[in-house]
Amino acid sequence: MNLRYVRFAAAFGFLLTFGGSSFAEEEPAAEPSPQPAPPSRLGIEFVRLPAGEYRRGMPGGDTEHEFILNHRYSNTPEFGREQPAHRVVLTRPFDLATTEVTVGQFKVFVQQTGYKTDAEKQGGSRGLAYDAADNWVDRYQVDPKFTWRHPGFDQTDSDPVVAVSWRDAQAFCEWLSQAEGQKYRLPTEAEWEYACRGGTKSWYSWGKDPDQAYQHGNVADLSLEKLHEGMASYQRALGLKPGEGDGVPYTAPVKSFAPNPWGFYDMHGNVWEWCQDRWDGARYNELLKDVPRRERNEHPVTDPLFLGETDQHEYGDWRVMRGGAWNTAPANVRCSIRTYAEAKESAVYTGFRIGREVPES
């Protein structure tokens, strides 16, 4: 047995049951496989992901119909931004943090640099300004009282930092790169979904059951509904009965829920996570527009990263966010979910996780 693999399996809980007992998988996974990578000096843990490929996005047809049937208590989702599903090939290994950047880790950055976030400089972040059961969207207002230090709810140093913009996340990565002599950066959205799926092919890294979201991530549930009437029921989120749900109304400390098969925590829910890419809602169509339709299913899209501009970018530097948050329904934390915000904007439901480039050997 590959001893290195067994240690990795044990560390990340890759256990199978056979003959009434649990033990690490007897046959090692096909090489190369994800492996633990050295932590940063700041204490951020990483997994090294090998070059590989996967199918990105939400398939249409029967798969889309099945998703809607399985989420009959949720709002009907819009899949257009996640289609057509397509084959992505990543040609280089990279490291990705197992957790979102925490309040404590961001605090060290601020203490050592005196950095002021966009929210602190520009009139605050978007937060829960007031309750209005008949208007879920307008509850969120930009206000100077909302910053990463004071998001409007209690946090510990182990909670994911929120109310940080894409530019704030970039500044953190640049500081850490200089401090440690390595290249830290935000993941591309292709890298992000590759890691989120963890080698799986379903809607979530655990399968198809939306109720299992409460074991794997922090999403909208009864605990949020009790504090802010209408916020979870507005989305018709599952698990609104007493005793159901994840029991956390706002952010949860990282590693509070089960990791995905590759050892990543909170890829589903907790906070939306910034990615490198500029936003293009029709990007997947653009990638395949010159490919004959009969060849699109297997056509490889290699190392996709969009840094160009669309007509929308005339009005701002719009960037991709992934993963859903504490205020989104289980249906909206699927692996393929994608949305966007302007690079200088921030919200109390948005944070980030960092990647690290692997030097060429």
Describe the fold and architecture.
This protein has helices at 3-12, 62-70, 103-113, 118-121, 166-180, 189-197, 213-216, 222-227, 283-288, and strands at 15-18, 21-24, 35-37, 46-49, 52-56, 86-90, 94-97, 125-128, 140-143, 184-185, 272-278, 300-302, 318-322, 338-342, 350-351, 355-357. The longest helix is centred in the middle third of the chain and has 15 residues, at 166-180. 20% of the residues lie in helices and 18% in strands. It has nine helices and 16 strands. The strands form five sheets. Strands 3-4-7-16-10 form a five-stranded antiparallel sheet. The chain has a four-stranded mixed sheet with strand order 14-13-11-15. Strand 1 (15-18) and strand 2 (21-24) form a beta hairpin. 43% of the residues are buried. The protein folds into two domains: 1-31, no CATH class; 36-357, paralog of FGE (formylglycine-generating enzyme) (Alpha-Beta Complex), CATH 3.90.1580. The chain has 361 residues and is α+β, with helices and mostly antiparallel strands.
Q: CATH class of the largest domain, anyone?
A: Alpha Beta
Mean pLDDT: 89
Spell out the CATH superfamily of the largest domain: paralog of FGE (formylglycine-generating enzyme)
Q: So what's the oligomer here?
A: single chain
Helicity, in percent? Answer: 10-25%
How are strands sequenced across the largest beta sheet? 3-4-7-16-10
Structural class: alpha+beta
Report the portion of residues in β strands.
15-25%
Coarse morphology: globular
End-to-end CA span? 27 Å
